[in-house]
């Protein structure tokens, strides 16, 4: 049996007659109104809570605005940006975020794909595993961070297991308090927390691939690898670019784990751009400077996601 | 994709957007409405501290019962979000009549015109100087209590190791202290014999560690003009302090990140000496009893120093009836009220008259030593509107130094940031 893909016939463009045209204008106008009315709440909320604050923040980046001050903010031109360029902590934050994203994006996407393929089988118990893998995702990141904070301690669960399994040969480091292990430790727990979410997205992608393609492949006697390479992988192209972009943006805006677990330390080894922005904006009360950090961050993320979109676009 | 973009915008911009919304307070809050119609509101940070909240509530109830003109209402906030709430209220011109403030933040809020100078019917000269918030020659706040720092140890442990118990007249010197730590460490009984609370990031760092810096002869800022930290936070004395702090960590005398509850660790003999706040004294005494030695902080050259200034009360510019607010504050400062609050918080009562009423703080009591520490060696954190910024820089620098950062470079970076901040705010002068 060869699979036949039924494609809809190309629709002929019908030329409407004049009388029909008038009627359609009327209905389309009222439809338009209804459409706008339905759109309005979302648009107003978006504008009020996202676009207006965003524009305000961009404006504030060029002022010396402060959280607490008896004086109005004054325009200072590019002062904040000049300061940003000479701030070694900011570059360290960029470096950390880059490192985090470079490791997390392939690791989380790959692991999620493997898990999705494993549980995409119609065998008993898959629902159980899906639920288990998805549990960390529905748990608040703050809670997850607190739990891992305890597990990563010098005398925490992870080091105790290391000690027992190796019969006392390996003494684990003080994970979060050591410049060489703090970032890897955060990467590990972040992937653990986020992988279930992307597994579900991969899974939905896998289920859009028609089963008859696989049946045909079986008849042709392809190997497992060929099956994956020539059917599964191309079938996931749309899902792939979605996952790539979401994980990248998530990774670049790393904040919660840092704020709960390390506060950027030790020695700036885990500080991130968003963490720096929040610190400057709230703890140090420098609203203008924090806005400048946000603006630069926004541009960087925008460029990266545009580049990703461009590279992963569907080539015709 | 759209969802992702939304997330991006939310993550990177909403934060500053919120800040933007909060900065409408540029010209300072004026013409509030609280205090009208014989009602007056107090905001306090101690929502999480039931004992302190109950004590303050009792004072409020007492005041409401004592006269008919004004009804005072108490509103408690969790400490973590308290400052943000006040800032937001100021931005919206909705400040309550009375707020409580952490001592070192008083100049910042006075400068921002949140607070109005006090005009009370009680004599504030009776108060410990560290319980008054003074800036630009005006008194903006007054506290019911103060806190102090001390070294706690077991007398038996010190005796076994041949270490003398330090006294107010003769605190440990730097040399004595390092010998003591060496001896304690050598016994092998403690992984880190000393606990200075390195795990408690936040106001603890400047509160506990800047007195050590001052004992070396350095400071957070030049207190002449309050315009620069150059020469004091990066001078030879400050460098000596930084190297000493770092040596505590490199010799494993302290943990670079101490446990969640240093007092509990000390009571369980996980550490031998605890450098902690006076508020831990009551608990430590209960756990250890007569074996507990309460000693002054170390003399690192310029004498033993302790931090001063805890939570205090101020009247805001948003109050429609400041006279009523002042009247309440005056009432709340009676010796009985001060004593009741100080008992509830296990802190040092602000006046001698109140101290006589608090068990342990009376003349010759076992806690009276803290009043002596406070009166004799309290150094206030710099009284400048720049303080909140200085505090974050100092905290970060100290953390970096403890974690092995280069002392001189770290201090230079902090000085640079502090000076830049003061300059960008026009020196924090009142125009």
TrEMBL record, chain A:
GO annotation, biological process: transmembrane transport
Species this chain originates from: Cryobacterium levicorallinum
ABC transmembrane type-1 domain span: 94-308
Keyword terms: Cell membrane, Membrane, Sugar transport, Transmembrane, Transmembrane helix, Transport
Single GO cellular component term: plasma membrane
Organism domain of life: Bacteria
Pfam families tied to this protein: BPD_transp_1 (PF00528)
Residues annotated as transmembrane: 36-62, 97-119, 131-151, 183-203, 242-260, 289-311
Coiled-coil annotated spans: none
Name of the protein this chain belongs to: Multiple sugar transport system permease protein
Automatic annotation (TrEMBL), chain B:
Gene Ontology annotations for the cellular component aspect, listed alphabetically: ATP-binding cassette (ABC) transporter complex, substrate-binding subunit-containing
This protein's UniProt keywords: Signal, Sugar transport, Transport
GO BP term (any one): maltose transport
MF-aspect GO terms: maltose binding
The UniProt record lists the keyword GTP-binding: no
Signal peptide (from-to): 1-26
Domain of life the protein comes from: Bacteria
Gene3D superfamilies: Periplasmic binding protein-like II
Stored PANTHER family: MALTOSE-BINDING PERIPLASMIC PROTEIN, MALTOSE_MALTODEXTRIN-BINDING PERIPLASMIC PROTEIN
Protein family (similarity comment): Belongs to the bacterial solute-binding protein 1 family.
Protein known as: Extracellular solute-binding protein
Organism, scientific name: Cryobacterium levicorallinum
């Amino acid at each position: 049996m060869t699979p036949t893909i039924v494609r809809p016939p190309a629709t002929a463009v019908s030329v409407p007659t004049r009388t029909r045209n008038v009627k359609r204008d009327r209905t389309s106008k009222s439809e338009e109104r209804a459409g706008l009315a339905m759109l309005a709440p979302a648009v107003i909320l978006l504008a009020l809570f996202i676009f207006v604050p965003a524009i305000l923040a961009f404006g504030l980046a060029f002022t010396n605005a402060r959280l607490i001050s008896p004086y109005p903010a004054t325009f200072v031109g590019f002062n904040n940006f000049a300061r940003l360029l000479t701030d070694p902590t900011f570059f360290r934050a960029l470096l950390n975020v880059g490192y985090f994203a470079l490791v997390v994006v392939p690791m989380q996407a790959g692991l999620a794909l493997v898990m999705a393929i494993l549980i995409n089988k119609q065998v008993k118990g898959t629902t159980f595993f899906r639920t288990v893998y998805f549990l960390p995702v529905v748990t608040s990141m703050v809670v997850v961070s607190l739990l891992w904070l305890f597990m990563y301690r010098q005398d925490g669960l992870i080091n105790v297991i290391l000690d027992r399994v190796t019969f006392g040969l390996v003494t684990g480091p003080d994970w979060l308090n050591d410049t060489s292990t703090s970032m890897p430790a955060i990467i590990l727990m972040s992937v653990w927390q986020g992988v279930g979410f992307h597994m579900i997205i991969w899974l939905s992608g896998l289920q859009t691939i028609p089963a008859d393609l696989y049946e045909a492949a079986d008849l042709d006697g392809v190997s497992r690898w060929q099956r994956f390479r020539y059917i599964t992988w191309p079938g996931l192209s749309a899902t792939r670019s979605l996952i790539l972009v979401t994980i990248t943006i998530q990774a670049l805006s790393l904040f919660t784990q840092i704020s709960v677990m390390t506060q950027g330390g030790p020695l700036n080894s885990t500080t991130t751009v968003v963490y720096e922005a929040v610190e400057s904006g709230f703890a140090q009360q420098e609203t203008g400077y924090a806005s400048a950090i946000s603006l630069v961050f926004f541009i960087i993320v925008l460029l990266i996601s545009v580049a990703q979109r461009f590279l992963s676009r569907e080539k015709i | 994709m759209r969802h992702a973009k939304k997330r991006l915008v939310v993550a990177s911009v909403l934060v500053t957007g919120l800040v933007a919304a909060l900065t409408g307070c540029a010209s300072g809050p004026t013409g509030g409405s609280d205090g009208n119609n014989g009602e007056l509101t107090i905001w306090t940070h101690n929502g999480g501290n039931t004992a302190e909240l109950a004590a303050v509530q009792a004072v409020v109830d007492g005041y409401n019962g004592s006269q008919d003109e004004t009804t005072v209402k108490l509103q408690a906030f969790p400490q973590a979000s308290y400052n943000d709430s006040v800032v937001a209220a100021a931005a919206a011109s909705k400040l309550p009549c009375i707020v409580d403030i952490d001592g070192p933040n008083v100049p910042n809020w006075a400068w921002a015109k949140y607070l109005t100078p006090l005009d009370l019917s009680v004599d504030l000269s009776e108060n410990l100087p560290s319980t008054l918030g003074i800036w630009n020659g005006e008194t903006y706040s007054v506290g019911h209590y103060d806190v102090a720092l001390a070294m706690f140890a077991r007398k038996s442990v010190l005796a076994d190791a041949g270490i003398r118990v330090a006294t107010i007249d003769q605190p440990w010197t730097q040399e004595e202290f390092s010998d003591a730590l060496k001896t304690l460490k050598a016994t092998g009984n403690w992984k880190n014999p000393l606990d200075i609370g390195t795990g408690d990031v936040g106001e603890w760092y400047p509160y506990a560690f800047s007195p050590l810096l001052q004992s070396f002869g350095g400071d957070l800022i030049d207190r002449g003009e309050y315009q620069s930290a150059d020469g004091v936070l990066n001078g030879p004395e400050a460098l000596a302090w930084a190297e000493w702090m770092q040596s505590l960590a490199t010799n494993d005398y302290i943990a670079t990140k101490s446990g969640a509850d240093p007092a509990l660790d000390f009571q369980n003999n996980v550490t031998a000496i605890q450098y902690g706040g006076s508020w831990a004294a009551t608990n430590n005494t209960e756990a250890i009893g007569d074996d507990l030695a309460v000693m002054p902080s170390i003399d690192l050259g310029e004498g033993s120093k302790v931090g001063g200034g805890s939570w205090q009360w101020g009247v805001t510019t948003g109050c429609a009836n400041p006279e009523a607010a002042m009247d309440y504050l005056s009432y709340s400062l009676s010796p009985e009220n001060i004593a009741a609050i100080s008992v509830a918080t296990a802190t040092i009562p602000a006046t001698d008259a109140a101290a006589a009423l608090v068990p342990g703080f009376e003349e010759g009591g076992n806690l009276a030593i803290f009043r002596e520490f406070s009166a004799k060696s309290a150094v206030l954190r710099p009284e400048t509107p720049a303080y909140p910024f200085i505090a974050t820089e100092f905290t970060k620098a100290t953390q970096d130094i403890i974690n092995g950062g280069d002392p001189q470079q770290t201090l230079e970076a902090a000085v640079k940031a502090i000076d830049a901040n003061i300059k960008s705010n026009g020196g924090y002068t009142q125009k």
